[in-house]
Write a structure and sequence with these properties.
By secondary structure, this protein is mainly β. The chain has strands at 20-27, 40-53, 63-78, 87-96, 124-134, 140-149, 153-162, 168-178, 197-205. Helices cover 0% and strands 48% of the residues.
């Protein structure tokens, strides 16, 4: 027994893989001003046979799993008021059969300091919504982005942009992450950044 504790050697390996993917898009037409007028729908699918994953046991033998990643994306401009420019809206549903948002194998999900990880069944699922609202004269713009992990995590990012002229731009945004919505942070990907509660102010000048 080594009194210094466990010792190991870690290395990053990026293995060659084959990615087969495709997508289709459709633009819907409806009554002017309706929700389906000029609505754009995108369906994208990616299949990777024998994708390499680190074994949750940290065994030297890597895991090989066939993975399917699919996404449905809806986007459109919607006018809510005649006194404001149109609002840009984007919604997405993401499904990954073997890994989470960061590419980590789902077999390592659900464990604790005293219990072995049982793994996550049914794949990884997440939903995202983004809203961008410019105001009159395009001097101000308000943004909001939300990512919800169905395993119990959420990322919320409100933002405000001020551009008084062609030279200066001021942008402010706040990041809020909560990876404990269901009580078990090892059931979702966002718990990795659960500590994040940060405000950023960016000043820009164009010459």
């Amino acid at each position: 027994t080594n009194n210094a504790g466990l010792r190991g050697w870690l290395a990053r390996d990026y293995r060659e893989e084959t990615n087969i993917g495709g997508g289709v898009s459709k633009v819907f037409e409806g009554a002017p001003g309706s929700w389906n007028d000029q609505l754009i729908a995108n369906v994208e699918v990616l299949y990777t046979p024998d994708r390499i994953f680190t074994n949750p046991s940290l065994d030297v033998g890597f895991l090989r799993k066939n993975e399917t990643i699919a996404a449905l994306v809806l986007e459109k401009y919607q006018r809510f008021s005649s006194s404001l420019p149109a609002t840009y809206l984007v919604g997405q549903f993401l499904y990954r059969s073997q890994s989470d948002l960061f590419g980590r194998y789902l077999g390592g999900y659900g464990g604790s300091q005293t219990e072995e990880a049982p793994g996550k069944t049914g794949g990884y699922k997440a939903m995202a919504l983004a809203i961008q609202q410019p105001f009159a004269n395009l001097i101000w713009r308000a943004d909001l982005a939300v990512l919800y992990d169905t395993g119990g995590g959420i990322l919320v990012q409100p933002a405000l942009r001020w551009k008084p002229n062609g030279t200066y731009t001021v942008e402010a945004f706040y990041n809020y992450v909560n990876g404990k919505l269901n009580g078990n942070p090892t059931d979702n990907a966002l718990s990795t950044a659960n500590y994040v509660k940060e405000f950023t102010l960016r000043l820009g000048a164009q010459f």
